[in-house]
Every structure is written in structure tokens, then in C-alpha cells.
């Protein structure tokens, strides 16, 4: 079975953008509870783990060009940023200091 990587990455980018919008709106809720923030973090982590599996499949494929790999890397970065953002919200709500996460290629999952 051949995977259409272009369509797969387009779908994943759309999904990640939708989750990013949801995260932004949810984190702006003034009376957001720690439980709700934790649930949001778990949803983000599930999405990130799903995309990690897609990345693993891409890495094992030999016919992937650099442009697609770069696109996948950008989506992975988005998931990493969402994960750190939601984790930091939970940490701050629990009275802990936020984690500082390096950005750029070295900061990818």
C-alpha cells in the first residue's frame, strides 16, 4: 500500500491548526480549571504521539523528498509548541514555574 504523503501531511497540518485554534481559545477561558487544562494537555499529547508515528513511517520510506520532510518537521514543531504551551498552563496553574523549551531544529520532539 502506497501512502500519499502530500495528502497525509496536508490533513495533519489542517488538524494541527484546528487543535492550535482550540488550544488558544481554551487557554483564554478565565475560569479554566486545572482538570480542564490537564485534559487539554492530554488531547494535545495524543495528537503529537499520532504525528510521531506518522513521522516514523515517513523516516522508513525511501521515496520522500526533502520538501515533504521539511513540511513534516514544521508540523512536528507545531505539536511540540502546543505540548509545551499546554504543559506550561497546567504547571502555572499548579503553582510551578513554566518549562523553557528550546526553539528551532534542536527543539523538535
Number of strands: 0
Rg (C-alpha, Å)? 15 Å
Oligomeric state of the chains present here: single chain
Strand content: under 5%
Order of helices and strands: HHH
Structural class comes to mainly alpha
From the structure above, extract its key features.
single chain, 109 residues, mainly alpha, 3 helices, 72% helix
Would you spell out the secondary-structure blueprint of this structure?
Elements: H1 5-27, H2 34-60, H3 66-93
Structure, explained:
This protein has a domain at 38-95. With 109 residues, the protein is mostly helical. The mean pLDDT is 91. The chain has helices spanning 5-27, 34-60, 66-93. It has three helices and no strands. Helix 1 packs parallel to helix 3 (66-93). It is elongated.
Short description:
The protein contains three helices and no strands.
Amino acid at each position: 500500500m502506497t501512502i500519499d504523503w502530500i495528502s497525509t501531511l496536508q490533513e495533519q497540518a489542517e488538524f494541527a491548526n484546528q487543535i492550535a485554534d482550540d488550544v488558544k481559545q481554551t487557554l483564554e477561558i478565565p475560569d479554566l480549571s486545572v482538570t480542564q487544562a490537564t485534559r487539554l494537555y492530554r488531547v494535545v499529547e495524543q495528537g503529537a504521539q499520532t504525528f510521531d508515528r506518522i513521522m516514523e513511517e515517513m523516516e522508513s520510506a525511501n521515496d520522500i523528498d526533502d520538501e515533504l520532510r521539511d513540511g513534516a518537521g514544521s508540523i512536528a514543531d507545531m505539536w511540540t509548541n502546543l505540548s509545551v504551551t499546554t504543559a506550561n498552563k497546567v504547571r502555572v496553574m499548579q503553582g510551578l514555574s513554566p518549562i523553557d523549551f528550546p526553539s528551532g531544529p534542536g527543539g523538535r520532539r
